[in-house]
Amino acid sequence: MGSIENLTQNLASRFPMNPLEPEEFRRQGHLMIDFLADYYGKVENYPVRSQVSPGYLGEILPESAPYNPESLETILQDVQTKIIPGITHWQSPNFFAYFPCNVSTAGILGEMLSTGFNVVGFCWMASPAATELENIVTDWFGKMLQLPKSFLFSGGGGGVLQGTTCEAILCTLVAARDKNLRQHGMDNIGKLVVYCSDQTHASMQKAAKIAGMNPKNFRAIETSKSSNFQLCPKRLESAILYDVQNGLIPLYLCATVGTTSSTAVDPLASLTEVAKKYELWVHVDAAFAGSACICPEFRQYLDGVENADSFSLNAHKWFLTTLECCCLWVKNPSALIKSLSTNPEYLRNNASETNKVVDYKDWQIMLSRRFPALKLWFVLRSYGVGQLREFIRGHVGMAKYFEGLVAMDKRFEVVVPRLFSMVCFRIKPSAIIGKNDENEVNEINRKLLESVNEFGRIYVSHTVLGGVYVIRFAIGATLTDINHVSEAWKVVQDHAGALIVDAFLSK
Q1: pLDDT tens for residues 57-79?
Q2: Quick check: pTM over 0.70?
Q3: Where is the signal peptide (predicted)?
C-alpha cells in the first residue's frame, strides 16, 4: 500500500499545474469582464478600421512561445497595446461597413456559458440538453418569423444552428444533389444545374464548387436597376428551359431576402412557382434581413417561403447573438440526414437507434459541435420578442433618417430604394463639374470611400450595382445611436466637399 501512496505522491509532484482551479478562474474571469467592459466603454474612440500595415504583429511579438508562464495581467497589457491596434472594431457605434455583427450582454453571457460547459453535442446522448434546447429555440424563432409549421419540429420539419450561411447552403445543396442523383443516377452529377441571381452571396458559388457541381452549370442570372436588382422569375424560367432543352437537370435555386450589395428582396412567391414546375430544391437565404421579419411590417418579404424547401438567417448579424449562429430550417430533415449522416460503432447508442431523438451531427458538415442554443436562448429570454422588434426598428429608423440626409444634399443620390437599415448612395454625376463619364464618377466615389475610411472616424464599404460604384451605409451595431449617424454624415459631407473641389480644379 505504501508503494502505491508513494507513486501517487510522485505523480502529483510531477504534474503541479491545475489549469482550471475554480478560485483562480473566478479571479481571472473578473479581470476579463472588466477588460471587455472598459473596451466597450471606449470603443468609439478607436479608429474604426485598423490602421496597421501588413505584417505588423510579427514585428512586435517574440519569435517563439514563452517557456515560463506569464500572468493574465501581462497578457492583457499586450492585448491592449499590440492586438487592439490591429482590430477593425465591428462593435464600434461608428461601424457602418459590410453588415452588422452585433452583440449583447445576453449573447456574450450565453457564449461564455457555452464555452464554459464545453460540451461536444454531436448526438443527443452526448448532451441531451444541448440537442433539446436547440430543438426548442429554433421552433421558438420559427414561430416569431411566422414560418409555416412544416419548417418546425412540431410540424415534421426542424431547425439546426449552423456556423454560417455558407454551411447552411452547402448542406442543403448536398441534400438536394443526393436526392436528385438517387432518382437520375450518380453518373448525372455533371448535368446538375444551380440557379441564383448575380446578386446572390458568393457563398453559393463556393458551395457549388465544394459539392462537385460542374462550374459550367452555375447560373448567376443577371439582374437590373429597373427591378431593383431582384431575380426575375421569367429570366429564371428561360434559363431553366434552355438547360432542359440541352439535356441538363435543373437542381437548386437560391433566392435571397436582403442581398449583400443592396438588400434587394427576390419575389419568393413567383420564383417558387417556377422552381416547383421543374422540381428544384428552393433555399431562401435571409442572412441579414431575415431578422427584421420578426416585425409584422417586414414579414411580407417572406411571403412565398411556404413553398421553399429550406430557409436560413444569421442570428449573429442583426439579432444580438455572437458569431457563429446561423439558423437553418428544413421541411424534410431526412434529406439532410441521408446525405450527412455517419454511424460508426463508437457512436452507436440506444437513444439514437430508437429514432426518437435528433442527432445534429447528421444535420451538418462537422461531427463535433458546441452548445450554440444557449446564447440564442439567452437573447430570446433576456430581451423578449417586443424589445427585439424595437431594437430592429430603431436601426431601420436611423437608416431612414440617414436616407433623408442624403436626399437633402443635392450633391448626392440614393442609388436604390432603402428597404431595411442600409442605404446605398453616391456623389451623383451632376455634382462633379466636368466629370460626366461614369468611370470618372465611380473613381470620385471610390476616392470618397477611401478618404473617409483612412480618416478613421467611421468605416463604410462599397459595392458595384449595374456598373455604378456605390457606398453602402449599413446601420446595425448595438451601440449606434442617432448622434453617431449624424456625425457620420458630416464626415462624408466634409470629405466629399474636398474631393469635389479637387475635381473642379483639375478639370
Answers
A1: 999 999 999 999 999 999 999 99
A2: yes
A3: none
